[in-house]
Design a protein that fits this description.
alpha+beta, Cytochrome-c3 Hydrogenase, chain B, 2 domains, 4-stranded antiparallel beta sheet, 3-stranded antiparallel beta sheet, 11 helices, 14 strands, about 15% strand
């Protein structure tokens, strides 16, 4: 029987700074605290007093990697408050923006953060160029990421903090030459994406635990539309009613809050989306992957990595179809008179469901709002998973390095985002 305290002050290869405290007494976890250690930035307070037209760009600064997700969620909330219905062309351009985001962001996580674990490396740049397999992974990673960046830049103006999307439409439109180049780049990386999927389909890491999954389930797998669905209850929640269903949980040890649904933890992200909507993937994606999709729904948390790789393929296939079947022409931004109201924007960011709420007065000045990010929603589920993992490991090993590595791998599988930074791990062990 073992009684230990484990403190991880820094968790490496995740987005931002986090810490973990686990207390084990007689082989049972009595305390597990996964904490965001970034300082609060009070961006919800910063919303107040701003003109609504400035809000999306302001809130895109919440994150430096998935900023375009915040931009689009905020735009959706503002349009909802103003009664603006975006045009069909605007929605196509927004879908392309999210596809560029997901290709780049998922590639960042899978290649730079997760893949070193598969090869026993500290970092992706430690891969051996003289080893054919590692050489291929290096080049695949940078080429996939570059194609996502190109698509997002072409359509939205930048791959982060995009310039072109705005309330009511777009400020700039891609030209025919750029569209053709985007298609070439996306077609060129498809074999690399298939290799990535194969890598994670065969990955040796597994952790099964039954939990609940929530995500937007759309008519098509577009990340921007649909109703919120929960696996265990079969409950469908209209996005506008989200605040009546998510319960805010204050964590005194963390700089970020957490959320539950019906008093229970749940998981959001790529695994949740595939568990709930794999039949909505692009037809070419489904045809290519065939029986591999039978793996979903899955309760293996590490299959979140595989789900991200599959989403990259979907984004490539759907983007190619849109780019080759659509023409984009200059279109006036839709404008409506300001009015007092409340708007809700709910989308699927790379890491899961993202909620934005805005309240404005009759002059279009923001009076308040709310932002609920995916990692806040996954927080309690991460803690529950780590507790189960540690209880499984303690009877098998007291090797602290192994325990810490297994915990890190599990947390990384969630692709948590605290901010845009990666830190090295420092662990303090104290025996009780």
């Amino acid at each position: 029987m073992h009684t230990i305290d484990l403190t991880m002050d820094r968790i490496s290869k995740i987005e931002g700074a986090a810490s973990l405290d686990v207390k084990v007494v007689d082989d049972k976890v009595t305390e597990c605290r996964f904490a965001t250690t970034e300082y609060k930035r009070f961006y919800v307070e910063a919303m107040k007093g701003k003109p609504i037209i400035a809000l999306p760009q302001l809130l895109s600064r919440i994150c430096g990697t998935c900023s375009n997700a915040h931009l689009l969620a905020s735009i959706a909330a503002c349009e909802d408050a103003l009664g603006i219905v975006p045009s069909k062309q605007t929605m196509l351009l927004r879908w392309l923006t999210t596809y560029g985001l997901n290709i780049r962001d998922h590639a960042l996580h899978l290649f730079l953060f997760v893949m070193p674990d598969l090869y026993g490396k500290d970092a992706f740049l430690d891969f051996d160029e003289n080893d054919p397999e590692q050489h291929q992974q290096l080049h695949d990673g940078f080429e996939i990421k570059a194609a996502g960046n190109f698509l997002a830049t072409l359509v939205a103006g930048r791959s982060v903090h995009a310039l072109h999307p705005t309330i009511g439409g777009f400020l700039h439109f891609p030209d025919a030459e750029g569209l053709q180049e985007a298609v070439k780049k996306l077609e060129a990386i498809r074999p690399a994406v298939l290799r990535l999927i194969d890598t994670f389909a065969k990955a040796p890491f597994h952790f099964d635990r039954t939990t609940h999954y929530m995500a937007l389930v759309p008519e098509r797998y577009d990340f921007l539309t649909g109703s919120i669905y929960r696996t265990d209850t079969g409950e469908t929640i209209p996005p506008k009613d989200f605040r009546n269903h998510l319960e805010h949980v204050v964590l005194p040890y963390s700089q970020a809050s957490a959320y539950t649904h019906k008093k229970s933890a749940y998981m959001v992200g790529s695994l949740a989306r595939l568990n709930l909507a794999k039949d909505k993937l692009h037809p070419k994606t489904r045809e290519t992957l065939g029986k591999l999709l039978d793996r979903f729904p899955s309760t293996d948390i590490f299959d979140n990595n595989l789900a991200q790789a599959i989403e990259i393929l979907h984004c490539v296939d759907d983007a190619i179809e849109i780019l080759t079947t659509s023409t984009f022409k200059p279109e006036a931004v839709i404008k409506k008179p300001y009015k007092a109201g409340v708007g809700i924007g709910v989308i699927e960011a790379p890491r899961g469901t993202l909620y934005h709420k805005v309240e404005i007065d009759a002059k279009g000045i923001v009076q308040g709002g709310e932002v609920i990010v995916p990692t806040n929603q996954n927080q309690i589920n991460i803690e529950e998973d780590v507790a189960v993992l540690v209880e499984k490991l303690i009877p098998e090993t007291t090797d602290k390095d192994k325990i810490e590595f297994e915990i890190e791998k599990l947390i990384r599988a969630y692709d948590p985002c605290m901010s845009c930074a990666a830190h090295f791990l420092k662990v303090k062990w104290d025996k009780v």
